[in-house]
């Protein structure tokens, strides 16, 4: 499997896992900002790497989603810097939904990397899934743990 696809899939996995953490927890604290920054960096990795993944050297719906998500995240970052919380939330939630939908298609459309890996090396696939979940959990726990008195 090409390194670009691995980087893309790992970054997308972190986006999908970190997005809900910031959506369901308290806002405007250092933990929210830290996880948000990780989310934005991972999302930019997803969008930029996605632009270089081609099947048959054609522009696909995935490329359009990458451009849309890149735009949403950038607008979301600008919005929060201008203290427009509702626009920020809308853009970030929208980017997470777009990534999750694209990931669902990538995971369930035959012939794509995830279904191929699941068929050829299911142990490797589940090991990667477990490692990503553990890594994301460690980051969240370390970021959101209460400050010591």
TrEMBL record:
Keywords: Membrane, Transmembrane, Transmembrane helix
Regions crossing the membrane: 6-24, 36-55, 61-80, 92-111, 123-144
Protein known as: DUF2306 domain-containing protein
Organism: Microbacterium testaceum
